[in-house]
Each structure stands twice: as structure tokens, then as C-alpha cells.
Amino acid sequence: MRQKPEVKSQFVIYEGAGHGFAVRADPGNEKVSKGTQTERLITRYPQLASIATGDLLRDHVKRKTDVGEQANAFMKSGKLVPDPLILNLILTELTDRKWLQSSKSNERIMKDLEKQGDPSETAVQPSDDPDTSFILDGFPRTATQADALARLLPMNLVFHLVTPIEIVLKRMASRWTHLASGRVYNVGFNDPKVAGKDDVTGEDLVQREDDSEATWRKRLTTFDETSVPLLDYYRKKHPEMVVEVAGNSSNEISPRIYSEIERRFC
């Protein structure tokens, strides 16, 4: 993709954990995550943009938009933000960037989506501009979300990043967070420049109480319960849509992603 692709390229970067136990190996100094891969992709391919739902949520909450206020109410009560609100965030971002075009208001489009009828009823058209190439980071997480998203804008490539469970657990046990921004560091994987301090603000990092091995094993089990139907959804739509990329480090995974993108779009 050193040259601009001739087709619009919407990707989903999807992170998973491999089943079973791997031989312990040094995963290197890079963390293995979709966030890392997204950063590398937009550096390598400047025409790509990234849409991260976590960043969108924080931005809308900070700006106190209508969607942000609704989402914040759920988060403050300890509840998950409902799918329609997340989808509305993405719809707003895509229409603001002129990547989706419609004569209808976003509110009307969301109501049409809730009907779950003919997708054409939403009357949304993707931009024909070849620069409309982006990565979705953090969405969709379920088959239901993927189906709703497809009614707005079908994806054409899904990367499923697979890392052995033991490496995931090791990374989580060494995770430190800057609460105000959501930035995450991992000792031995993605160290802060100054131990215990956020790289940007210099403020203290904290280690969350729920970052224990038992908690994360339970989370990974729950993750599998939603990830399998999600990946099956995309595989049924097109057998070659999902590309599984396995590795113990970002340095192993990145070249394989580059190769697949350049094979398909360059």
C-alpha cells in the first residue's frame, strides 16, 4: 500500500487469545496487541485512519455530547455501554468525516437499524473516495454488533490476532494504567519511560486490583464465548475475510499483516 489502493479498505483489527499453553519465550520489548498493530499500520500506510471506540467514548464524554452523556451514565453505574450507543458513536464519526453519506439524520438512521429489515432502508452510501480507508479498533465485539455494522458499512478484511494465553496473562499481570487517559503500560513489554509515571503527563500509574490471573482467566473464557460467533459471522459472509495471525510478539505479527494487506490491496 505504498501506493494508494484502488479500492476502499475497511479493516477490523481483532485481538484474541490462543487456546492451550505455549512454550515460554521472551515476547520481546513490544506488547502484542491490536493497539500496537494499529499504530504501526497507520505509520506504514499514511492513507489509513484509525477509529478506536475507546478513544471515541472518552472524547465524547469529555466534550459532553449527547451520546457522550448517555454513555457516561452507563459507565458511572458500572454497566456496559449498550450496542446502539456504540454504533451511534461510529455512525457519527463516519458521517462527520464524510465517509458515510445520507439524506437522513443519524437519529433516523439509528431507528432504521433497529427495525432490522432490508439494509437498503437505512439509505446510507459509503464514500467513493479511495482515501476512505480505515481500521476499526475495538468494534465490533459480538456477532450482533457486526451485523448492525454491516448494515451501515460492510468490512472487507478482518485480522484475528492470536497470542498464547500464558503470554496474555503475563502481560496483564504487569499492566499499569494512567486512569485519566486510559493509556496502558506493561513492564517488560511496553515500559513507561520513567517507572511508575505516564509518558505524556508524568502522573502516577496505578495497577488495578482486578488485573489478577484468576480474573483474567475468567475474562478470557467469556471473551471466547463472544469471539467464536463473531469470527464465524464474518467467515460465513466470505470465507477469506478473516485472516488469523499468530505470534508471541508484535515483531512477529506485524510483517504478516503487512504482507496480507499488500497482497490484497497494492
Care to describe what's here?
With 266 residues, this protein is α/β, with parallel strands linked by helices. It has one domain: P-loop containing nucleotide triphosphate hydrolases (Rossmann fold). Helices cover 43% and strands 17% of the residues. The chain is built from 9 helices and 9 strands. It has helices spanning 34-44, 53-63, 66-76, 83-96, 106-115, 143-150, 165-173, 213-237, 250-265; strands at 10-18, 48-52, 100-101, 125-126, 133-137, 157-164, 175-178, 183-186, 242-246. A 5-stranded parallel β-sheet has the order 2-5-1-6-9, with helices on both faces. Strands 3-4 form a two-stranded antiparallel ribbon. Strands 7-8 form a two-stranded antiparallel sheet. It starts with 9 loop residues before the first strand and ends with a helix. The model is unreliable at 1-9 and 13-32 (pLDDT under 50). Keywords: Kinase, Nucleotide-binding, Transferase. It comes from Corymbia citriodora subsp. variegata. It is an enzyme of class 2 (transferase). Belongs to the adenylate kinase family.
The description of the largest β-sheet is: 5 strands, parallel
Derived structural class: alpha/beta
Q: Can you tell me the residue ranges where pLDDT is under 50 for at least 5 consecutive residues?
A: 1-9, 13-32
Helix content: 40-55%
Mean pLDDT: 76
CATH topology: Rossmann fold
* C-alpha termini separation: 5 Å
Number of beta-strand segments: 9
CATH superfamily annotation: P-loop containing nucleotide triphosphate hydrolases
Report the β-strand fraction as a percent range: 15-25%
- Please identify, by name, the CATH architecture: 3-Layer(aba) Sandwich
CATH class: Alpha Beta
* Bulk shape: globular
